[in-house]
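Quick entry, no commentary yet.
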Amino acid sequence: MRQTNTAPRNNKLKPSSNLIMNGSVRVRVIRTLLAIQNGQSLASVLDPLLNSLHDGDKGFAHALLLTTLRQWHALARLLDTLADNPIDEVEVRTTIQVGLVQLLYLEVADHAAIHETVEAAKEIEFSHATGLINAILRKVAKNPSKFRKKCDKKHSLPNWLAYQLKQDWSEQYDELTQGLRHAAPMFLRVNSAVSSVEDYQQALDGAEIDADIVELTTGFNLMNSSDTAMATTLSTKGLRLHQSTAVNALPDFALGAASVQDMHAQLAAPIINKALMAKINTEVTDTDGDIAENNNNEIHILDACAAPGGKLAHWLELISANDQSSLFHVKQDDAKSTPATADIKVTAIDNEAPRIERIRENLQRLNLSQHDLQQAEKSVALNIVCADATRWQHGKNKKAATNEPVFDAILLDSPCTATGVIRRHPDISILRTEEDVEQTALLQADILHNLWPQLKAGGYLLYVTCSILKQENVEQMQDFISHHNDAVAIEFTEDCNWGIEQTIGRQCLPIDSESGDGFYYALLHKTMA
């Protein structure tokens, strides 16, 4: 979804395409913050900033930029109490907030923080404000602990978002809004085709990188051939690093041994894969437990809105694994069952060509490209398509009036406001607007209504977002089910050691420093009726 700016506009702001990376470190950080307020994402401006600096300055610039963004709204409110008159110039406000971060959060020496910030104002041609900037920063420097407490007392979110979180999560509100101000931990997903989680932890230890194994248990009631609940549990293991580490320092990262992926995001592929395996087993077993005839060996699955490809890669790893998580393992215990050479077709779609290219790059690093899959002993056909998920129909003209049920399982990593990953992308709190939530919910509904008819009866759709707003999550699911009589929500059981139970699905909240991001999961089953 297009990111929308909510910050005060000033016609002196540089056009986003003309972001200039010169001057002091603080000047470059200020210009980067102005670009974000002018509509650019952190992801698009962070590398240009860091690449413009000497190695010795990159760490400070990164900390200054990310900390300013995380404390942005709290700093803005503090600034309003420090100034005798309203400060309307966005460049001046941004410069002061950069100065405040140095004094309150980065422990930069007073004289250096004040002097260099004042000089930065001159470099960006706002010399007329240097007296004001100097006075405010000196006032804060006299009692930084007092002003730090004032800044930390409440949330650092736009008021509309804080209000909505209060409505959605009243019991967790204080802990949640404070948690969003801090950096998220770094998690790794180990490629099961290359190594086990335990072995890779040892490899990290050999590289002097400390990491803990995190194990998440998922319990849910899948459906059997008579559409009755069948208790199922699965375990998902990942690694949480004690400190964030450059990927080039990770053992065999370039060879595909591991991927950086949030722990809660690592739940998606195992859940939909387990549901798919249950569907396949149900198809070949009749109600008396006997093997039934099944002449169709084709298994067709869809990853919708697949970029950048982390969940897709995880699913492909599971499909091709040499253990019971593999689709090739299903139904091999009986000679009469579907043979292990079942035709597995994987379709992945996303609506932007650059994002499609990102998928291909990630799969290539993990040795999961179409060429790799074809060369493997267990062949999987992979088709990556650039298409709009609100209109795309498999094998049909976009103007077709009806869809054909093609897919046995669909993973829908739905577009959302990404409020659950603010810790990793703090620019979201600046770029998102209240109107974005409504627009995103409508987009999600359009995608769901387009994809659902393409799911076979008996199939499963896993709906995932990285949002913590109920309008995009449980309320979206409630509305969808109310309009689709053949959609049944699968119950997650108390065996789950993650998330908060909802009327439909479960919600993870990014609350503490060791937890994963804010993800929502709902698993839908399409009945035979």
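second:
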Amino acid sequence: MSELFDAVDALLASRAALPPPAERKRLRAAHGLTIDEVATALKVRRATVSGWESGKTEPRPPERDAYARLLDKLAELYPPAPVAAAAPAPDAAVPATFTVVPDPSEARTLSTGEASRASAMTATENTPAPAPVAAPAVVSRPARTTRPTSSTSRRPGARRAALAAPPAGGADPRFENGPLAVVDVEDGKVLAYCTGGLVLDVPAKSLPSLVDWTLREAKLGAPKLAGPGKDADPVLVLTEAALERYGLPTTLTEEEKHAGRIPEGHKVIKQLVRAEWKLTKRGFGPWARIYRPATGSERACVQLCIPSWNALDTRHWGEAGQLPPAELARVLGVYASRVMTPRGSTAVTGLELMTALHPPTRASEPGADGKRHSEHNPGSLGKDPIDPMNWPPCEVPDGHPVLKDLPRFHVRGPAEKLFEEAYDWARPMTDAECTLRHLVGIDVNMAFAAGANGLNVGLGEATHVKAPVFDPKLPGSWLVDLSHVDLSKVKVGKEWVELDGSLLPSPFTPKGERPTGPAWYATPTVAYAQELGYDVAPAEAWVRYDNGRYLDSWYNRLRDAYLATMADLGVDADLAPADFLAAMDGYKDRDPELAIVVSAVKATVKGGLGKLRERPRGEGWRPGEPWRALSRPTWRPDIRAAVISRTRINLHRKIVKHAAFTGQYPIAILSDCVVYAAAGPSPLDFLPYREGKPLPGGFKLGINPGLVKHEGTQDVLWGEEVRERFNAPELNLARYIKDGTVTDVDSGE
């Protein structure tokens, strides 16, 4: 009988009653729980809980029973507030008002989620609210008296997928209005559109007073991401109307664009100086920082973002700069809540995220006198940059001070320069491949983020070693001859396999050419030569004994941001291959604003890694002289090289396993995109799935970083015609596989 009872219990658990998705989110937020905390408790991924709260997926046993128990307990603590039959009298005296107005273009009844949020807001204030009615409708309530008396707040139209927008309020009362605001002028009034749909009236008449109001009354900002770190400064996004109101140009002149700032003699800068505000060395540009020197632990700094000055690069932010204020606040708010408050371009933010997660210093334990002092934070890059003259010559770009004694026009070869870059390789198609009908491109999701995950990198300076014994766990740069590695016979796992090496790119060079002698390589590249079954004997190396997995938390943060946003767009991490391909089809159209966030997250990964090796940017620099980026502890070209090396090796490993199992070889590779000839137009026409399971260690369809998605499909005849037209049999078709448009000859640069 016990087995029968167990079966009945399991059946009941499989149908454990759950509240609607929006109510699940309300209950979690009411108790101050984050999605990460719930996911950890239930031993599932963050994206899974996000899917449950958005209604895109439903929990299954055994997690379903535990999730239902959690929600039942929370419902006892936070029951839905009763809804009054009528709204407050129109002449009721209230100090400030919040208003929820559905988008007029969506004539519909308020969703359960919107109604729940309205009820939750009412419950918080113990104030009645009207019942939901057909849109357009308004739900009003008195505001907290803790909000500045000079500010009135209201909620404009809640857009589609409103659940994806982070609420204005947060656990930290200092930043209850969110991390940022979009400042606009409507009907002569200055308004600050915050995240979650909150709008504040702004009393400031000048830019200095706007900065002062932001710090004193607006309650904008975000708490630090790591224990010894710093809170994020508030960001104000100024629309063109706001620029005019505060005496700033709506666009920059060509000279100002080139300089990246407005002149120091501008009247608004003079206003700031008179009010004792300062600007950073970059001056007043698209991402201006206005501050006063910190006193104690108190920071007084506001960051400005000016879209019409190209603060939001269209390559990464799409049309975000053209969005209405509320929608722009939503886009930037989602990004800020999932990645971090933007500190500049996506590249700058990617780099700043590394520091925010690993602050350079921390407070020491109390000394004999009971006082604490600042000390190095273990696992960080520290507060001081590496001395330019202490860099290994092989790791630095041309023009670096450590190379100043080289002849002026000297060109460094592989034996002098570490050259770890992404793939740009292609080959002519075989006769057999020409008989197939399609060229199918697959793209690795967040490839460079996946390459950073779990990677051991150097934290401090390098040590020069002669004739070292290679250690695959030791980060560094190694001078070694890998020309003897023959791809026609390699180890895959523990077994030797024979392949057609002429159809494979070399894993050791970006162009896929087989090396001809000694060259400098990062640790992952040399380790892969050993993995393929070949001995390595480095002649010398620059190694870093102080090392660690510095990028792990950075990867986790960006991965979670990417997966959560893709889940909001209907692409979950646990979809079957065919369902995944269907979900990816047109996902950007489901919510173009969230699609912008996805693009920005991807750009944050690539840009942040690129900043690790930032080159001179004008400033009157001459070869052999230091440039500004060298003064940062985060100027670390060795870390960038290691990530790119591992990313390229990860891709080659999958290509080799795929070739060994299927006999199929890539036609072209560009960075993280690989093109194969196939009989059908879908990745499923050449990826070897068996009963829904992929080839172990090979390509797998899915949205997680490191897995692949469909990049595009073209006809084989298209590929042959394009190569013939440009008389380029090795034209890299991966560059054009997405939509088939070829804009110029592939120069290979």
